[in-house]
Amino acid sequence: AHARKRLLEICGSQRSDGWFLRQYSTLGKRGPNDSRPYVDNGLWVFELAWEYLVYNRDFAMLNERTDWLDSDNKDTILTHLIRLLDYYLAPENLGEHGLCKIREGDWNDSVNGAGLEGRGETVMVTAHAVYCLILAADLLRTLAADSKDKEQLAIADRFEKAAATLKANMLKHALNSEGYFNAVFNDAGKWLFSPTDSDGQHRINSTPNTFAIIAGVVQGEAREKVFKAMDQLKGPHGWRLFY
Questions:
Q1: What does the alpha-carbon distance between residue 102 and residue 12 come to, in Å, rounded to a whole number?
Q2: Contact 187, 114 (CB under 8 A)
Q3: Residue 88 pLDDT exceeds 90
Q4: Helix 150-173 to helix 123-147 angle, to the nearest 10 degrees?
Q5: What is the pLDDT of residue 200?
Q6: 64-93: string of b/e by CB count within 10 Å (b at 16+)?
Q7: Which of 16, 99, 139, 188 is the most exposed place for a label (fewest CB within 10 A)?
Q8: Position 148 pLDDT exceeds 90
Q9: Which residues contact 142 (CB under 8 A, 6 or more apart)?
């Protein structure tokens, strides 16, 4: 019940273009919210909704209605979730490599200046979007099995195709010659956390690589190369996020 309440509350902090606040006020959507343009927020919301539905199959929750951060109009939670994913597929939110733009930041909060001019891209968020798009297609097909809703099936097809396109873009542009994924492409046109870091260092960031594995972007021999590269992050207390 608590998770259900939280999901409805969180979706009320979503902007009508699908973007979510980085942090929202307990005083409501007109409170002192954190509107810094980080871009990873919505994907965590989708995962929460997915896990909630997987564990208790409360599909009626998807028919609940709530408003938007910038509008008092109310739409279903399912509409909110679809709009959430469409944010990551909107042309204005994809960069020159067809990867998700980073804006002010992704999960790695400290990388907060790579995309302020609107060019920078994030590999981690792209991989996470692939994962959530695949889950969303499965959810919509599950719903349509009962409802026979052709629109839901069409959206499922669209999400699967979008996931395949994002995968292909990651493999083409972000998988480097050493067999792991670069993390961020910045406004200056440089890859960060890569074998070509501008100070001559060679850095691996684990999160774009672990999410690429979770999302199935790499398979077989390519996946083993990613695992091998990440072994360089192993320290005396476990695996570092980056080093």
A1: 23
A2: yes
A3: yes
A4: 160
A5: 86
A6: bebbbbeeeeebebbbbbbbbbbbbbeeeb
A7: 188
A8: no
A9: none
